[in-house]
Write a structure and sequence with these properties.
Layout: H1 11-19, E1 31-32, H2 38-41, H3 44-49, E2 56-58, H4 60-90, H5 102-110, E3 112-114, E4 121-124, E5 127-133, E6 141-147, E7 156-160, E8 183-187, H6 201-214, E9 219-222, H7 228-241, E10 250-253, H8 255-266, H9 273-282, E11 291-294, H10 297-302, E12 311-314, H11 323-331, E13 338-341, H12 350-355, E14 360-363, E15 366-369, E16 373-376, H13 386-393, E17 402-406, H14 410-422, E18 428-429
Parallel strand pairs: 1-2, 2-3, 7-8, 8-17, 9-12, 9-13, 10-11, 10-12, 13-16, 17-18
Antiparallel strand pairs: 4-5, 5-6, 6-7, 14-15
The structure holds zinc ion.
C-alpha cells in the first residue's frame, strides 16, 4: 500500500469514508509511506487496529514526524468522539467509537522501519523500492518501485511522486528529478496554477513586520505546526540577524509546533545549502535570543498581557481550533496589529473569512470587528506549481506508458492532464475513487 491517509473535510462524511479500507488490512504485506502529512499517514493507526501487522516503511524524518503527528491525530479522534457522543447522548443515541485511540497510534509507530533516500530496499522478493527527495516537507520522498515479473524480462517501473515541493524554498532541499518509469502516479494539487516566486518571501515578511512594529502592534501568524512554522521562524531569525527587522520577541505557541521543531533539529542533515551555511555561523537555525517556544497553557495566556510589539506564531493553520483562535480574538480588533496569513485557507473557515477581510468575524460566539491589517503571503505553498510539476514530469514523457493524476481538484487535474498530453505523455488518466487498472 502506498500511503494511508485520512479523508479530510466535513466531519461526518470524512469519518464514514475513513472507516473502511478497499482491502482487508490483515492481508496487506507492507505500507510504503511518502511523507508525514495526515492526508497521507493519518489512517495508519486504523489500519493496525483492523489487523495490519506488516512493516511501514518511511524515511527517518518521516518516521519521527509521524510519531508526534499520529499521537496528536489520535488525541483529536478521541476528542471528536467525545464531542459527538455528548450530542448523541442528548438525542438518546448509542455512543460511537473514536476512529482510533492513542494505543492504536503507538502500535502503528512500532511497525515503522526507516530507510533513507537513494537506499534501495526490498518490500517483497520481487519488489524493490527506492526513496528520492520530494522537497515537500521534512522527510518527504518520491517512491520508485521496480517489480521483477516471475516470467523474467525487464522489471516494470512505477513511480509514485507523493506530494511534490517547490524549488528554492527555505530549509528544504529541492525535489530530486522524478525517477523515470513505465507508470507514473503524480500529484496535481496545483496542476493549473502558478505561485509567486519563493525568493520574494523574506522581503514581504520584513515589510509586514516593520510596518506593524512602527504602529506598535503585534504580528499574529496562524501556521501549520509542521513545516510552515519552522520556515517562518527561520526566515524571521535570518531577517533579525541581518538587521532587517528589529529583534522583537518571536513566540511559537503550540505544543505540536514545539515538538515538530525538535524533529527538524534532529534532522539538520536534510537542510538545504543555505540553511546549513546559516547553521554554521549562527548555530541553531530555529533558535535565537528572541525565539521563545511555548508549551504550557498558562504561558500562552500570559502572552495576552504583552503590550509591546512581538510575533506570535500559533496553530491551527486555518484558525479553526487551538491557541491561535484565542490570539485572534484578543488582537484582531486593534488596527495596530497585523494578521499574517501564510497558508491556504479552506472555504468556511475563520482563516478564509479573515483573508476575505469580512468587516466582522465571529469567534467563540462573539461578533468582533476585524480592524487589524491583514497581509496574505501566497508564496509559502509547500506544493509545486504548474511550472514546477512540469519541470519534474516532462523528462519522463517518452518512457512513461501511462500516467495517473491524483491529489487534485478536477479543474487542476484537467489543466495538468492537458499540459502532460502536450508534453508527449501517451496516456494520462484521472482515476476516480476505487478505480482499478491492470499494469501487466
Ligand atoms: Zn503533503
Amino acid at each position: 500500500m502506498l500511503d494511508c491517509g485520512l479523508f479530510q473535510g466535513r466531519r461526518a462524511e470524512a469519518l464514514e469514508k475513513s472507516r473502511r479500507f478497499p482491502i482487508d488490512p490483515a492481508r496487506l504485506k507492507a505500507v510504503v509511506l511518502s511523507h508525514a502529512h495526515i492526508d497521507h499517514c493519518g489512517r495508519l493507526p486504523l489500519l493496525v487496529k483492523q489487523g495490519f501487522t506488516g512493516p511501514i516503511y518511511a524515511t527517518p524524518a518521516t518516521r519521527d514526524l509521524c510519531a508526534i503527528m499520529l499521537a496528536d491525530a489520535a488525541h483529536i479522534q478521541e476528542e471528536d468522539a467525545r464531542f459527538i457522543n455528548r450530542k448523541r447522548a442528548k438525542a438518546g443515541e448509542p455512543p460511537v467509537d473514536p476512529l482510533y485511540t492513542n494505543d492504536d497510534a503507538q502500535a502503528a509507530i512500532r511497525l515503522f522501519r526507516s530507510v533513507g533516500n537513494r537506499n534501495p530496499f526490498f518490500v517483497t522478493r520481487r519488489l524493490k523500492v527506492t526513496y528520492h527527495e520530494a522537497g515537500h516537507m521534512l522527510g518527504s520522498a518520491q517512491v520508485a518501485l521496480e517489480y521483477s515479473p516471475p516470467a523474467g524480462g525487464a522489471p516494470v517501473r512505477l513511480t509514485f511522486t507523493g506530494d511534490l515541493g517547490r524549488f528554492g524554498v527555505p530549509i528544504l532541499r529541492d525535489p530530486a528529478p522524478t525517477p523515470p518509469c513505465d507508470y507514473l502516479i503524480v500529484e496535481s494539487t496545483y496542476g493549473g496554477r502558478r505561485h509567486p516566486p519563493a525568493a520574494d518571501l523574506p522581503d514581504e515578511l520584513a515589510e509586514a513586520v516593520n510596518d506593524t512594529v512602527q504602529r506598535g502592534g503585534k504580528i499574529i501568524i496562524p501556521a501549520f505546526s509542521v513545516g510552515r512554522t519552522q520556515v517562518i521562524v527561520y526566515t524571521l531569525h535570518k531577517l533579525q540577524s541581518e538587521g532587517r527587522i528589529p529583534a522583537i520577541p518571536i513566540y511559537v505557541d503550540s505544543p505540536l509546533s514545539v515538538d515538530a521543531t525538535e524533529v527538524f533539529r534532529l534532522h539538520s542533515e536534510l537542510f538545504d545549502k543555505e540553511a546549513r551555511a546559516f547553521q554554521a555561523t549562527n548555530g541553531d537555525i530555529l533558535g535565537c535570543r528572541s525565539c521563545n517556544y511555548i508549551r504550557e497553557t498558562e504561558e500562552s495566556i500570559q502572552l495576552n498581557k504583552r503590550r509591546r510589539p512581538c510575533v506570535i506564531i500559533s496553530a491551527s493553520g486555518m484558525c479553526e481550533t487551538g491557541r491561535i483562535v484565542h490570539h485572534l480574538r484578543n488582537n484582531i480588533q486593534s488596527p495596530r496589529n497585523t494578521v499574517l496569513i501564510v497558508g491556504f485557507q479552506a472555504a468556511h473557515t475563520l482563516g478564509r473569512r479573515i483573508v476575505e477581510r469580512e468587516p466582522h468575524v465571529s469567534i467563540f460566539g462573539q461578533k468582533l470587528k476585524l480592524r487589524a491589517r491583514v497581509v496574505v503571503l501566497n508564496g509559502f505553498s509547500s506544493h509545486a506549481d504548474r511550472d514546477e510539476l512540469r519541470r519534474l514530469t516532462r523528462p519522463l514523457a517518452k518512457e512513461c506508458r501511462r500516467a495517473f493524476l491524483v491529489h487534485g481538484e478536477p479543474d487542476q487535474m484537467e489543466a495538468m492532464r492537458d499540459t502532460m498530453r502536450g508534453d508527449g505523455f501517451p496516456a494520462v488518466e484521472m482515476p476516480g475513487q476505487g478505480a482499478a487498472f491492470d499494469l501487466a
